[in-house]
Amino acid sequence: MRRTLIGIPAIILAMGASPPALAGAAKAGSEFAVNTYTTNSQFAPSVGVDATGRFVVVWQGYYEDGSYGGVFAQRFDSAGAKLGSEFQVNTYTTSGQRSGSVGVDAAGNFVVVWQSYPQDGSSTGIFARRFNSSGASLGGEFQVNTYTTNFQFYPSVAMNGSGAFVVVWTSYFQDGDGGGIFGQRFSSSGIATGGEFQVNTYTTGYQTRAAVAVAPAGNFVVTWDSYGQDGSGLGVFARRFDSAGTPGGGEFQVNTYTSSSQLFARVAIDANSRFAVAWTDYGHEDGSSSGVFARRFDSAGSPLSAEFQVNTFTTSYQSRPTIGMSPAGAFVVAWQSYPQDTSGSGVFGQRYDPTGAAAGGEFQVNTYTTNSQYIPAVALRSSGDFVIAWTSYQQDGSVSGVFAQRFAPTFTLTAPKASSTLSCHPPILVGPTFAWDTAGYDVFRVLMSPVPGFLKGAVVTSGTKLLKSSTYLVPTTKWQSACSKALTADPNNPILFIEVFGVDKNLPKSDLNRKKFTPSIQVTVTP
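RESULT FIELD:
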């Protein structure tokens, strides 16, 4: 029987707890097929998640609607079960609609944008459609761009928790020289706010492949690739805007290593408007063909770090990163890597805590490894749950299909490590420091016992008041007490079992997941 908890208060008094760090994460279930229609190719997914963990995956499908390409979507609940059937997003189906991107608000309402040819009568244009949290359309599709001459393509959309959204895209020759980056803001009701605007100020050559991230307050950051601006191939640039669309200063270069090209930039932002940008470096910065790099910035656009390499495995090619960030600033980067799993490309990921420290090592996302898995997309929510979707070649028996994997946080101790040795040698001047991944839990109690059952009378706890942080420096008196109990229980082999109790205050008291213990670890103590 589970031991009786000692003094767990009925009312938690830990309002104002610090935001949770990024939890450890493990695969939640198996990878799964997103698309139901499998003939020909389904590829290039985009994914968004709401506050409860429901998510939407959008992709491009060939010939499913009888034309060259269409944009399709599938909704899922927080457990990864399909909500309804896959559905076509675009209603205009002549020729090709492609490059879908999705933004989701906290309540699960979402918007999808894509490029369509030749719907506006002049090459490609940017179109969008809004849906409510049940997947019902909130009106018909509508054109995003106002300037329609030549090509508008490579759209990206981001939506904040309230449903306001920003769309950015590349427009060919609109600024008089090659491609430029343009944008349009929309209210939560889908009404254009202000006119379309140019993002980049440097216009020589071409600027392309824009990405956007919107903070809860409506301010946003746009990144793009710019050719020739740094004197060496492509570079990654960015610009900040407030909620009214006013620039927060000029554009700035994200990457500091500029040899050859840095491109395919993606951006994510937290609730405090801190943001991170990830990109592919083709300048042999890591001594190989290409690598994935990233850099963090504060809300004012000042660097919080130097650029850093995301991937650990550096042989051959690592490219096409995607990035998702929680409101607290923890983030996940995923990318495609060749030939890391020895069979074409595979999808790999790396987690980071809100300080930018790596949380564990890089990990493989896909389980099926035959042929290639590539072009990932990621979405992360506040609890640490995240989902990654990607394209997989021939896995579903046809040319390509879209697959996904959910990851769930694990509530675990990170320090001390299991089987480590801690000193109880007198005089004890200070106790050890314990640390744990929070996994979305808000307040905590540490328990230490010489027996694994944590029986009443054998337990030393951190106290009746629950802790608000994810670390605990054991006070001298409590460590002396824990050492004494361990030495009394077994003088020849004194051991302690340690675990942490957590409470998720966002869940109702009736929810069985509201309270949880980490797995206990065993350590040896030296007298």
